[in-house]
Amino acid sequence: MNNEKLIPKTKTCFYRLKCPACGNEQNVFSSATTKLKCLACNTVLAKTSASKIKSKTKIVKELR
C-alpha cells in the first residue's frame, strides 16, 4: 500500500533568513501572523500576507 496518498504533505515550513544589516541568521515560520524582526538589530526581515510571509531579505534555506 502506498502511504503517500494517505498522509498529506504540509504546505507550511520554516525558513532561515539572513539579516542584511548585521548578518544574523534566524529561523522563521512561513505562515507567521506578525511582522518578523531580526533579534540582534531589530531590522524588519519579513511582512505578513494572506497565507505566507513576504521576505524582504535573502532566504538561506528552506527547512521542512
What can you tell me about this protein's structure?
- By secondary structure, this protein is mainly β.
- The chain is 0% helix and 41% strand.
- Strands 2-1-6 form a 3-stranded antiparallel β-sheet, with no helix packed on it. Strands 3-4-5 form a 3-stranded antiparallel β-sheet, with no helix packed on it.
- It is elongated and about 45 Å long.
- The relative contact order is 0.29.
- The model has no long low-confidence stretch (mean pLDDT 90).
Which key terms come to mind for this protein?
elongated; 41% strand; 64 residues; three-stranded antiparallel sheet; mainly beta
In short:
The chain is built from no helices and six strands. The chain is mainly β. Strand 4 and strand 5 form a beta hairpin.
Secondary structure elements and their pairing?
Blueprint: E1 14-18, E2 25-29, E3 36-37, E4 44-48, E5 53-55, E6 58-63
Antiparallel strand pairs: 1-2, 1-6, 3-4, 4-5
Cα end-to-end separation: 24 Å
Mean pLDDT: 90
List unreliable stretches of 5+ residues.
Answer: none
Using only CA atoms, what is the Rg? 14 Å
Q: Briefly note the structural class of the backbone.
A: mainly beta
